[in-house]
Amino acid sequence: MDEQWKSKLSPEQFKICGLGGTEPPFTGKYNKHYEKGMYLCAACGQELFPSTAKFDSGSGWPSFTATIKSGNVRLIDDHTYGMHRVEVRCSQCDSHLGHVFEDGPPPTGQRWCINSLSLDFKPL
Q: Which one of 57, 70, 120, 121 has the lowest number of neighbouring Cβ atoms within 10 Å?
């Protein structure tokens, strides 16, 4: 899969999607993006987040209250950096997307904090 991703993704996208990296806050193209449409996995194109679930969390990363369908992501306990977080991966290609936190707004109370570089966008 690494060679396939390297041919499709930019080096910066590969660092995030393939190696679990994180882009610097407030630098991603989708942080302040509010067009209507669907956010997709940059590595495989699977639908992940509807634009109707996007909100400005102030964190510097695109944030969503919910996924388009729970089966489109896989959640993994992440204990790096001496803390517990929940990593979000694409269920189709296993690409690293970001993390989900329990400090979001209603109705879900969740904040899906996702790297812009792990996303593509399909406008309506």
A: 70
Nearest to 118 by CA among 48, 37, 68, 36: 48
The DSSP string of 51-112 is GGGEE--SSSS-EES--S-GGGEEEEEE-GGGS-EEEEEETTT--EEEEEES---TTT--EE
Domains in the chain, number: 1
CATH code at position 47: 2.170.150.20
Closest CA to 36 of 117, 121, 118: 121
Percent over 90 (pLDDT), the chain: 87
Residue 88 belongs to what domain range? 2-123
pTM for this one? 0.93
C-alpha 12/C-alpha 47 separation (Å) is 21
Can 41 be counted among the known catalytic residues? no
